[in-house]
Amino acid sequence: MTDNSDKPLPIEAKLAEYGLKVGPETLAALKGAVTDLETAARSIRVKRSYLQEPAHTLRLWTK
Amino acid sequence: MTALYDLTIAEAAPLLKAKTLSPVELTAAYLSRIEAFDGQLNAYIRVLPEQAMAAARKAEAEIMKGGYKGPLHGVPIGLKDIYNTRGIPTTGHSALYRDHVPEEDATTTRLLAEAGTILLGKLSTWEFAIGGTSFDLPWPPARNPWNLAHDPAGSSSGAGAAIAAGLAMGSMGTDTGGSIRGPAAWCGIAGLKPTYGLVSRRGILPLSFSLDHGGPMCWTSEDCALMMDVLAQHDPLDPGSADVAKPDFRGSLQKDVKGLRIGVVRHFFETDAESDPEIKAGIEAALTTFRDLGCEVIDVTLSPLSAYGDVAALISRSEAFAFHEETLKATPELYGELARQRIMMGAFVRACDYVNALRERGRLIAEIATVFEAVDALICPTMPGVAPKLGELGNMMSRSRPSFTRVFNVTGSPALSVCTGFSAAGLPLNMQIVGRPFQDDLVLRVGSAFEKATSFRDRRPAQWAQPALAAE
Fold first, then answer.
1. What is the distance between the alpha carbons of residues B405 and B400, in angstroms, rounded to a whole number?
2. What's the ipTM?
C-alpha cells in the first residue's frame, strides 16, 4: 500500500496499516487534524535549492 | 510587612543568607498554603511534605554552619511532573506513567537540588505536555488563581497556577509550542523559554526532541534570572546541549536598557492573527514604557505566523509520534482523548514533509537572524487573549488559530512572557520578549526593567491572601 501527496490513502486504511486502534471520537478529530497537517505540508512544498539543508544536520565535532 | 508567600526569590535570598529567615519556616509556610488552597487550584499532582521538610532542615543546618550556597538555597520550588525525580513518581499527568518511578533525576532536577532548593512537589501538566485541558485523566486540571472558573493555560499549568497563587517560590516548566509562556501569560507571572540547548533536556519526558525546552517560571523576571544562573550548564548527556559560555544572568540585570533597539512584530498581532483589544493596548502601553526607558522602538517584519505554525505542527507531531508509537499501539486506552488525538496525528506526516519542514525551519532561523541585526529584542503578544473559562479552550492547536509562541520554538530563540497589566475582568494581560540565541540574559534584563518600571508585580490574586503568615 502506498501513499502520495496527490492522492492520500484514507485515514482508516492508514490506521489499520499502522496498527493503531481508535474510537469514533478520536477518528472524527483525527480527520480534521490530518487535513490541517496536509495543508501545512502543502504550504512548505516549494521548490528548494539542494543547498537548503535541514536545520538539524548532524554535527559531530566538538569545540 | 510582606507575607512570606509574597516574597520573591530575590527578596527572600538575603534574608535566608542572613539567617533572619529559616528555610524550615519558609517551607512549612508553603506546605501549609498548599494544604489550605490546592484543593481548589489542583496545581500539584503530588506534594512531598516529609521530603521537603527534611531538605529544609538540611538547608537550614548548612546555612547556619556558614555553608550558604547562593540565592536558591532554602527556596521552595515545584517541578512540572515531566521532570524526572529519582525515587518519586513522574507521571506526565497520565495513567500510562502512573507508576513510573525514575531511577535518576533529570539534570535540571539535580542542579536545582545541588543549589539547595526545596522540592515541595510535582506540578500538574497537560498529559505528556500536549493533551489538555483534559478532564479524563487520573488527576484534575489546574485552575487559574486569578479566577477559578478560568483556564491557567498549558501545558505547564500547575507551575503557572502555583506561582501566581503563592504555592511555590519558583517552578520549572517545559515549552514545545508555548507551554511555559502560555501559562505564564494567563497566570500573570514571568516564564522564560531559554535558547534551545542552554538548559538540559536530559531526564525530562520528551514531547518533540527538537522543539522541547525546559525553563523557569517565577513571579518576576529577576527570579527567573536567579534560576537560570543555576540551570544554564552544558550537559554532555543531552545531545542538544550547547557548550557555550554561561552569561551572568543576575549581573546582567544591573545593566541599563537605555539605547536598546526593540523590534515590534506588529503584523503578527494586527494582521496575521486576531488579538484581543486589551492585549494590543497592553502592548502599546509597554512600548511607551520602553520608549520612556530610553529604548528605540522599531516595527519589523518576519514571515507570517502561519509559516512558523506549519513547520512547528509537522515537526512536533512527527517527533511526538516517534516517541509514543509503541505505547499508542499497545495501550491507547491509557491516554486521554486529547493526547491520543494530538500525538496520533504524527502518524500521518510523510517523511519528506517532515524533512522539508526542517529545511523550511532553517530558512526561518536565517530570516530572524537577519532581523536581529537591526534590533536587540522583539516584542509581540504571548497569547492573543486573556484566559478563557476552563473547558472552553477549544482546539488551540488548530491551524485556524495561529500561535505567537510556536514561532520561537521553531527558531530556538529565548522568549520570555511577562505581565502587561490586567483586563477589565481582572485577568492578566501579556507580552513576549524575544532575543538572539544565547542572549537570554538580555531578554531577562528587558523583562525585569519593564517589571520595575511598572506596578503590575505589586498585584497578586487577592483570593489567596493569608496575612497570618508574614515576614518582618
1. 15
2. 0.92
Q: Beta-strand (E) ranges in B73-186?
A: 76-80, 118-123, 170-175
CA distance, residue A24 to nearest chain B CA (Å): 11
CATH number of the domain within which B187 lies: 3.90.1300.10
Determine what percent of chain A is predicted with pLDDT higher than 70: 87
pLDDT tens-digit map of B318-356: 999 999 999 999 999 999 999 999 999 999 999 999 999
Residue B349: its chain A contacts at CB < 8 A? 37, 41
Closest approach of A40 to chain B, Cα-based (Å)? 5
Q: Structural domain of residue A24, as residue ranges?
A: 12-43
Q: How far apart are CA B453 and CA B100, in angstroms?
A: 45
**Per the structure, how many domains does chain A have?**
1
Residue B470 pLDDT exceeds 50: no
Asked if the model's pLDDT at residue B466 lies above 80, the reply is: no
First to last CA, chain B: 5
- Other C-beta atoms within 10 Å of B53: how many? 16
Residues of chain B neighbouring A39 (CB-CB closer than 8 A):
310, 399
**Chain B, nearest residue to A61 by Cα:** B243
Shortest Cα–Cα distance, B234 to chain A (Å): 12
Nearest by CB to residue B310, choosing from A25, A43, A62, is A43
Report the alpha-carbon distance of residue B142 to residue B191 in Å, rounded.
Answer: 17
Domain containing B348 equals 2-471
Cite the DSSP H helix spans in B100-156.
Answer: 107-114
The pLDDT of residue A57: 80
pLDDT at A62: 65
Q: Answer whether B342 sits within 8 Å of A33, measured CB to CB.
A: yes
Quickly count: other Cβ atoms within 10 Å of residue B49's Cβ: 15
Cell of B200: 538540559
Cα distance between residue B438 and residue B362, in whole Å: 17
